[in-house]
Design brief:
The complex is a heterodimer of chains A (101) and B (463). With 101 residues, chain A is mainly α. Chain A contains 4 helices and no strands. In chain A, 75% of the residues lie in helices and 0% in strands. Chain B has a 6-stranded parallel β-sheet. Chain B has 463 residues and is α/β, with parallel strands linked by helices. Helix content of chain B is 59%, strand content 7%. Classes of the chains: A mainly alpha (101), B alpha/beta (463). Chains A and B meet through helix 1, helix 2, helix 3 and helix 4 of A and helix 1, helix 2, helix 3, helix 4 and helix 8 of B.
Chain lengths: 101, 463
C-alpha cells in the first residue's frame, strides 16, 4: 500500500515534467485548442465514474449510482464536446499556400 | 475465474496505450501541421480507455452507465458546435463539468469508504473535493461573466480578500480534522460547500480583461483535482492525464500573468481597474479622426500594414470583414500581418482562432515578440477593438496602473489608426495616450461596419 502510493507520486512527478516540456513547445497560436484538448483528455476521469456507477456496493449504492451517473454525463459531454471543438478549430488553421483565392 | 487475471491485464494495457496516446496528442499539438493528428490520438486513447474500463469485471450493472454516456454525448455535441466567438465561455463551462465529475466521484468515494480512510488518502480526497468544488462554481461564474449573463465588471467590497481567504482557510482546517478523524462524516459537506461558495466569491472581483489568466488557472485546478482523484482511485492513467492538464493550465497562467506583468495573487486579489473606473476623469483633449475613405487611401498607399485585433473585434464579429480587408490590401500588394498580444481576447489564443476561422493563414498571425521589432518599419498599424495591449503608457508612464506590462508598440508605426466606438476608456478603465498622438487617427464606429466601409472604398468585398 505504502509502496503503491510512492509509485503514484513518482508517476505524478514524471507526468508533470513531461507535461511542462511538451506543452512549453506548443505555439501560442494554438493555445485555445490546447486548452480544449487538455480539457477533453482530463475527462478521462470518466473511467472512475464508470467504475463507481457500475460496481456493486454493499452500502451507499444509491448515492454511488446517482453521483456516478451525473459524473459520467458531465465527463462525457467534455469528451465529446472537447474533441469536436478542438478538431473544428484545428481544421481552420491553414498556412498561406501557393494556391490562394 | 481463470480468465479474469488475463482480462485485468488487458484493461491495464489499454490504459497504458491510452497514456502514451495522450502524451503524443499534446506533442503533436506543437505545430498546426500535425495538430489534427494529435486530436485523433487523443480520441483513440479515450475510446480505448473507456472500452477497457467497460470490460472491468467489477462492473455489475451497465444500465446507468449507458444512459449517462448517451446523455453526455447529447449534451456534448452542441457544446462542440458553439460559435468560435463563444469558445471562452464554452471552455469555462467545460472546466466546470470536469470539476463537477471529480467532485461527485470524490464525494461518493468518501461515503463508501468512511470510516476506514487512511490519512494520506483522506488528505488527497480532501484536495480533490476542495479543488473540484471551487473550480466548479468558479468556472460557472467565469462562464456567466463571459456569456454576459453576469456583470463583467469587477465587484469589490471592503474586506473581500479577508473573507475569501478566511473561507478557504476554514475549508482547509475542516479537511485537516477529517484527515485525523475520517469518521466525522458530518464535517464532509463543509469541504464541499465552503469551496463552492469560495469559488463563486473568488470570481466576483475579477473583470473580463483578467479572464485569460483566470481561465488558465481554473484549467490548472481542474487538472490537479483530477490527478488527486487518480491517487484516490489508484489510477495511473488519471494521475497522468490530470498532471498533463494541470501543467498545461499552469504554463498558460504563467504566460498570461507575464503578459500582463502581474502575479497570480495580483490577478486573484487585485480587482484591476476598479479605482480608475470609479475616478472616471474624462479627458477632453483633441483627437484626430478620419472617415473610411481617408483611412482606405492611407492603407492603399502603405507598403506594410500590421493589424492589431482585440476583444472588440470579437464582440463586433468583425473577423470576416477583416479578412476582406486583408484580401483587398494583399491584392494591391500591401504586406499585411497581424500582431497578437497574448492576452488579447478572453482566453489564451482567442484571436488566433477567430482569425483562422476567417481563413487568414496562420503564418500571418504573429506573436507580440515577433511583431514588435517590425513596427518601426510599419506604415500603418490598424488597431481593431484592442486598447490596453497597445497602451504606450505601459512603457513610459510609471504612474500608469499597467506600467511594465509588455505591449504591442503600435505607436512606433508611421501612422496609427484605431477603430473604436467612442472615446470611452477601455475595459480596465485606463486612459490610453496613444489616441492623442499626432500620428494617430481615430476611426469612430462599429468595427464590423467601419472595416466594411474601408473594404468598399478599396473596391473589394463580396457584397
Amino acid at each position: 500500500m505504502k509502496l503503491d502510493l510512492l509509485t503514484s507520486l513518482y508517476v505524478f512527478m514524471l507526468a508533470a515534467f513531461i507535461g511542462f516540456e511538451v506543452i512549453r513547445r506548443v505555439s501560442p497560436l494554438l493555445h485555445t485548442p490546447l486548452m480544449s484538448l487538455t480539457n477533453a483528455l482530463d475527462a478521462i476521469a470518466v473511467v472512475g465514474a464508470i467504475i463507481l456507477t457500475g460496481e456493486f456496493h454493499a452500502h451507499g449504492a444509491m448515492l454511488a449510482k446517482i453521483l456516478g451517473t451525473v459524473a459520467i454525463v458531465a465527463a462525457t459531454s467534455n469528451i465529446v464536446g472537447g474533441f469536436l471543438i478542438t478538431d473544428r478549430m484545428l481544421k481552420m488553421f491553414k498556412a498561406s499556400g501557393p494556391k490562394k483565392p | 475465474m481463470t480468465i479474469l487475471p488475463g482480462l485485468e491485464t488487458i484493461i491495464e494495457i489499454t490504459y497504458l496505450i491510452a497514456t502514451a496516446l495522450f502524451i503524443l496528442a499534446l506533442k503533436w499539438l506543437s505545430s498546426p501541421a500535425t495538430a489534427r493528428r494529435g486530436v485523433f490520438a487523443g480520441e483513440l486513447g479515450m475510446v480505448l480507455a473507456i472500452a477497457g474500463t467497460l470490460l472491468h469485471h467489477g462492473i455489475v450493472e451497465y444500465k446507468w452507465i449507458v444512459i449517462a454516456l448517451v446523455l453526455g454525448t447529447i449534451i456534448g455535441v452542441p457544446l462542440g458546435e458553439v460559435a468560435m466567438t463563444a469558445v471562452p465561455q464554452r471552455t469555462a463551462l467545460s472546466h466546470a463539468f470536469g470539476a463537477l465529475c471529480v467532485t461527485l466521484v470524490g464525494t461518493a468515494e468518501f461515503y463508501l469508504r468512511t470510516p476506514d480512510v487512511p490519512r494520506f488518502m483522506m488528505g488527497v480526497l480532501s484536495l480533490e473535493v476542495i479543488l473540484g468544488s471551487l473550480t466548479f462554481t468558479g468556472s460557472l461564474m467565469a462562464a456567466g461573466k463571459l456569456q454576459e449573463i453576469l456583470d463583467q465588471r469587477p465587484r469589490t467590497y471592503k474586506g473581500q480578500n479577508f473573507v475569501n481567504l478566511g473561507l478557504l482557510g476554514v475549508a482547509i482546517a475542516v479537511a485537516g480534522i477529517l484527515v485525523v478523524h475520517p469518521e466525522k462524516t458530518q464535517l464532509f459537506p463543509l469541504i464541499v460547500g465552503i469551496p463552492l461558495l469560495f469559488g463563486a466569491m473568488m470570481i466576483i472581483p475579477i473583470g473580463g480583461a483578467d479572464m485569460p489568466t483566470v481561465i488558465s488557472l481554473l484549467n490548472s485546478y481542474a487538472g490537479l483535482s483530477a490527478a488527486a482523484m487518480g491517487f484516490v482511485l489508484d489510477s495511473k492513467l488519471l494521475i497522468i492525464a490530470g498532471a498533463l492538464d494541470g501543467a498545461s493550465g499552469l504554463i498558460l497562467s504563467i504566460n498570461m500573468s507575464k503578459a500582463m506583468n502581474r502575479s497570480f495573487t495580483n490577478v486573484l486579489f487585485g480587482a484591476f481597474g476598479q479605482e480608475q473606473a470609479a475616478a472616471g476623469k474624462q479627458e477632453t483633449r483633441p483627437v484626430r479622426s478620419a472617415t473610411p475613405d481617408e483611412a482606405a487611401g492611407i492603407l492603399a498607399a502603405a507598403n506594410k500594414v500590421v493589424i492589431v485585433p482585440g476583444y472588440g473585434m470579437a464582440v463586433a464579429q468583425a473577423q470576416h470583414k477583416v479578412r476582406e480587408l486583408y484580401d483587398a490590401l494583399m491584392k494591391r500588394g500591401v504586406d499585411v500581418k497581424f500582431g497578437i498580444h497574448p492576452v488579447a481576447g478572453r482566453m489564451p489564443g482567442h484571436m488566433n482562432v477567430l482569425l483562422a476561422e476567417a481563413d487568414i493563414p496562420y503564418d500571418k498571425l504573429l506573436d507580440m515578440e515577433d511583431v514588435n521589432g517590425d513596427f518601426p518599419q510599419t506604415d500603418v498599424a490598424l488597431v481593431i477593438g484592442a486598447n490596453d495591449v497597445t497602451n504606450p503608457a505601459a512603457r513610459t508612464d510609471a504612474s500608469s496602473p499597467i506600467f511594465g506590462m509588455p505591449v504591442l508598440d503600435v505607436d512606433k508605426a508611421r501612422t496609427v489608426m484605431v477603430i473604436k466606438r467612442s472615446m470611452g476608456a477601455g475595459f480596465a478603465g485606463i486612459e490610453n495616450p496613444l489616441y492623442y498622438l499626432d500620428k494617430t487617427l481615430m476611426l469612430f464606429g462599429d468595427a464590423k461596419s467601419f472595416v466594411g466601409s474601408i473594404v468598399r472604398e478599396l473596391g473589394g468585398g463580396h457584397e
